[in-house]
Amino acid sequence: MDLSIDPILDFTGKVAVITGAASGFGALVAEELGRRGARLVLGDINEAGLQSVVEKLTASGVEVQAMTCDVSSETDCAAMVALARENFGSLDIAINNAGIAPPMQHFEDVDEEIFDLQHRVNVKGVFFGMKHQLKVMRTQGSGVILNVSSMAGLGGAPKASSYSAAKHSVVGMTRTAAVEYARHNVRVNAICPFFTLTPMVTNMQAPEGATADQLHATFAAGCPMKRLGKPEEVVSAMLMLCSPALTYVTGQALAVDGGVSA
Ligand code: NAI
């Protein structure tokens, strides 16, 4: 990816914590921030995936620390923040990205276990991260948090009720923290992507009798651009929201959706 607006996207010396960094948006945003000078603290439950991301970054000269982290554990989320402070002395950017998608089911078929799991990972994972990140950023008097919500966090999402509930919560926490911490020079925003071709979507189980391509075509039909997103299109929006140049943008939930919400 080459974004030729580098003064805006210069992250030299910034310290960034990223959850869910072993795959998809998390791995790509780590690579792009690293390439632009950031020092990174990465976490994921997927130890092997995380290790290969770390090896790639290290080989290209990026300073990176990593730990196996389950975001549904407050202890793990706090440990990522501590790792940033102990190794790099500050925390400038936190990207709460780790998340899971539920099986596609009608509302009436969703059981409590699925609903709880969505909230344990997609809501508590962001809450625990923010809680510890905000404390450090308030004390420093600066910082940027970016939460990864979804289009399902801005509107109805057929056959994804538990996911939609969880992602709406992420938007709510984002706006609340933005208002509460603005006076401490901490910005908090969210991105809300439409279906994008990361492993989360490419590995999605198609309904019986349909292929993955047919499922993707159905999603694309609902988008004015008539296609799914590319990971780099979402990551460029993530970089923009974390940019040191966007000093007056906070409390926003930015749709990255090919016009779906227009
Ligand atoms: P992905 O499946 O490629 O990556 C998600 C990463 O999160 C994986 O590395 C996974 O191991 C990690 N993870 C899952 N549970 C975790 C836990 N408990 N603790 C720590 N790490 C955990 O998927 P993708 O697309 O990169 O997803 C990133 C975020 O983007 C998620 O929050 C997802 O809900 C959101 N999103 C994705 C969209 C898409 O179409 N791909 C659309 C809208 C939002």
From TrEMBL:
Q: Name one Pfam family in it.
A: adh_short_C2
Q: Which UniProt keywords apply?
A: Oxidoreductase
Q: Which CDD domains match?
A: SDR_c
Q: Which SUPFAM superfamilies match?
A: NAD(P)-binding Rossmann-fold domains
Q: Note whether Oxidoreductase occurs among the keywords.
A: yes
Task: State the similarity comment.
Answer: Belongs to the short-chain dehydrogenases/reductases (SDR) family.
Q: What is this protein called?
A: SDR family oxidoreductase
Q: Which species does this protein come from?
A: Microbulbifer salipaludis
